[in-house]
Predict the structure of Putative 11-S seed storage protein, plant.
Amino acid sequence: MNIEEEEEQSRESGGWSQNYQPGLASHREEEEDEQRPGCSPSHRREEDEGKEERKQRPGRHSEDQGPRRPRPSKEKEESYEGRGKGRKNGLEETICSAKIRENIAHPARADLYNPRAGRISTVNSLTLPILRNLRLGAEYVVLYRNGIYAPHWTVNANSLMYALTGEGRVRIVNCEGNAVFDDWVRKGQMVVVPQNFVVVQQAGEEEAFEYIVFKTNDGASVNNVK
């Protein structure tokens, strides 16, 4: 068999072509890979190195930044903002700038008025906020001649009664209904009325009876006997 017949048989059987050169195929494949975008050997090395670095990283933040503190929730932030609110005589109203005077003896200041009996004025932490710190309240009473302050008692405070002008009859009854005091009280005299004890005052026939009552609660509650 001659050379020409051998070449024809190799072509028909899918063998090597005439231009085939052993050892050049792998070189051509490398050249084609280098010509493809993003497929160079150096690029592949960079990708491999980047993957290894990501695996070695412990977290999103580097060691230089250090651990971050957890951010407080919205509820905690609102509670922090609301801590300074609602304080009684705190930063909002200091002792130096607080109102410390109230004219409860003025007739226009009366809370209750009866043209035949007299008038009553009260002061507490609502009308004079500084009394909240002192936990005190006061009641100013003017009884006209023969005027009567109906039987009443203080639910949450003891009372200290001090006569300013005139004289009046004062009667105090304890929780059992027994009279513990029944006498005349004149200008300059003082009487203590315990909590929940019923008291009644009546002015004399000659002049009005004026007195003030200090209470040991800035929000004293007074109930009348019906």
